[in-house]
Amino acid sequence: MTLNSIRHSLLLLVLAFLTLEVQASSRINSLRIWPAPDHTRLVFDLSGPVEHRVFSLENPNRLVIDISDVRLNTQLDSSDLTNTPISRVRSAVRNKTDLRVVLDLSQDVQPRSFLLRPNEQYGHRLVVDLVLPEKQKAPKQQAPKTIKQQRQIVIAIDPGHGGEDPGAIGPSGTREKHVVWGISKELASIIEKDPAFKPVMTRTGDYYIGLRKRVEVARNARADLFVSVHADAYRLPQPQGSSVYVLSQRGASSESARWLADSENRADLIGGVEGVLTLGDKDETLAGVLVDLSMTATLSESLKVGSRVLKNLGRVNHLHKRDVEQAGFLVLKSPDMPSMLIEAGFISNPQEEKRLKDLAYQRKLAQQIANAIKDYFIENPPPNTTLSANRSHSSTAYTIRRGDTLSEIARRKGVDIGELRKINGLNNDVIRVGQRLRIPST
Ligand SMILES: [Zn+2]
Q1: What's the gap in Å between 335 CA and the centre of ligand 1?
Q2: Which distant-in-sequence residues (6+ apart) come within 8 Å of 282 by Cβ?
Q3: What's the CA gap between 440 and 442, in Å, rounded?
Q4: How far is the CA of 296 from the centre of ligand 1 (A)?
């Protein structure tokens, strides 16, 4: 064959390919939408990697997402758009194999998009975040007001996972994010009842926020304690019981702690890329030293409050380990805020899974955690707080037993029932077994 005839047959071969039916090589299998207070996240589940481009159009406001070489394998217009800035989702095929998705918007948004590679739970994903402009964001959680120089003690409650990150999944399909949400909400509502305390939730709905962002929310609220709530999972069904972890400076205290720290930290890969926690404009080396110094003090506080929580959890559940464990969780790495991570139980254990999703049991766990936290702060009140002021005319704690009534307790302790209601933030005389009351000393 001459060179020319080779060229000729190659050309024919190419032409033959071009005239074949054109088929896009990747598919969009589903669209998941997660509204959060300051942004809405769209996750396109893909069968393979894609190229994409996102741009905005005005009058009316629209966002265009062009995805190359992709075929639609789902209904985009049936998505639930409640609490999102999207009023409608449309799509059309372009250039035979490309797809154009148009979002009709009810307000201005700042788009941000990125691709995520497959992980244990999901395949390739295209993530498009619609970030609301600052002024339209939901009001920020306020730092506590100082009343007469006395502030409330702020407890940051961090329900693990959320949104596209379900956390661990139990044998009958229970998702960790739902269990920890239930416990965290209960914990917040118990803590809120005490006027000396103020709970702050790091996430306020079923959406994902990065690990560093969770710490940032707590720091912005000037939290006195950071409590991350999770449920454990293991590859075998037998392990059971609650655990409490605080940060380890020299690596994990046991192999299982290390394994767990890895899987909890891995959540950040599911949610995307996060910025790095900074200490403002401090020099990096100096910042490192400061972190080390303040962390040592914080760690001993974390251990103290953590062991109280563990002991209390032992009243309503098995304990997985008798002592507070130490591991390198990212959410615990806050230099100036005592922090702990609670694994409420093993969602991978079928019996424990059943209990963990039960609201009454979630409430029991929350009550024990709240009691431990309150007791710790009653004994160690930070300066300038309502509790440290109350301490000067000191109070003691009393745990409600079966058959107790508020009026009977008041009589027995020789205190005014109105005073008792006030110091405990009670609106009525309803009390629960296990609830902790502060008794003012007369
Ligand atoms: Zn978790």
Answers
A1: 22
A2: 290
A3: 6
A4: 25
Distance 354 CA to ligand 1 centre (A): 17
End-to-end alpha carbon distance in the chain: 110
Q: Are 327 and 248 in contact (CB under 8 A)?
A: yes
d(CA 178, CA 255): 27
Q: Say how many Å lie between the CA of residue 41 and the centre of ligand 1.
A: 21
Which protein residues have a CB closer than 5 Å to ligand 1 (ion)? 160, 167, 230
Domains of the chain in start order, with CATH, are 24-131 (2.60.40.3500), 153-271+278-379 (3.40.630.40), 393-439 (3.10.350.10)
Question: How far away, in angstroms, is 260 Cα from ligand 1 center?
Answer: 9
What is the arrangement of strands in the sheet containing 26-35, beginning at the earlier edge strand? 70-72, 26-35, 39-46, 124-131, 110-116
How many whole angstroms from 95 Cα to the centroid of ligand 1?
Answer: 44
Find out whether 203 and 209 touch, Cβ atoms under 8 Å.
yes
Nearest residue to 153 (alpha-carbon basis) of 246, 230, 227: 227
Length, in residues, of the chain? 442
Cβ partners under 8 Å of residue 360, min gap 6: none
What's the CA-to-centroid distance between 229 and ligand 1, angstroms? Answer: 7
The answer to whether 247 touches 302, Cβ cutoff 8 Å, is yes
Cα(175) to centroid(ligand 1), Å: 10
Within the chain, which residues score under 50 in pLDDT? 18-19, 136-138, 140, 143, 145-147, 271-293
- What would the pLDDT profile of 179-197 be if each residue is shown by its tens digit? 999 999 999 999 999 989 9
For residue 88, the CA-to-ligand 1 centroid distance in Å is 34
Query: How far apart are the CA of 341 and the centre of ligand 1, in A?
Result: 9
CB atoms within 10 A of CB 2: 7
pLDDT in tens, 93-144: 988 899 999 999 998 898 888 888 887 778 898 989 998 887 644 454 554 5
